[in-house]
Design goal:
The protein is built from 2 helices and 8 strands. It is of the alpha+beta class. A hairpin with a 7-residue loop joins strand 5 and strand 6.
Length: about 120
Amino acid sequence: MTRLTGRALRLTVLVGENDTWHHRPLSTEIVHRAHAAGLAGASVFRGVEGFGASSHIHTARILSLSEDLPVAVLIVDTEERVRAFLPQLDELVTEGLVLLDDCEVVRYAGRDGDGSGSGGGETRE
């Protein structure tokens, strides 16, 4: 497992939930490529309302149709590893927003290796 503490780079990709890559959700493709690239982690968050460069508001409000809501894919790793991943996004993201932010990782811990989820994270040295 990748150990990550201290200075890092946060990559945020904002796209629409209906965006696809070869008939697969774009956010799923980004997460799977990040995993294959060995990045420390990636998460996808679905928004409830938003607009982008097209200026069309997408919303999940009851009186409106829930269509193409905003999706944020967040990836955090070292600057070198995140920047090495950017060319893959050039290929994938044709509409949307890609952001980079400096950040500090305070804690990065996973479950115990048995996958039971009952562990308290990694053993400290």
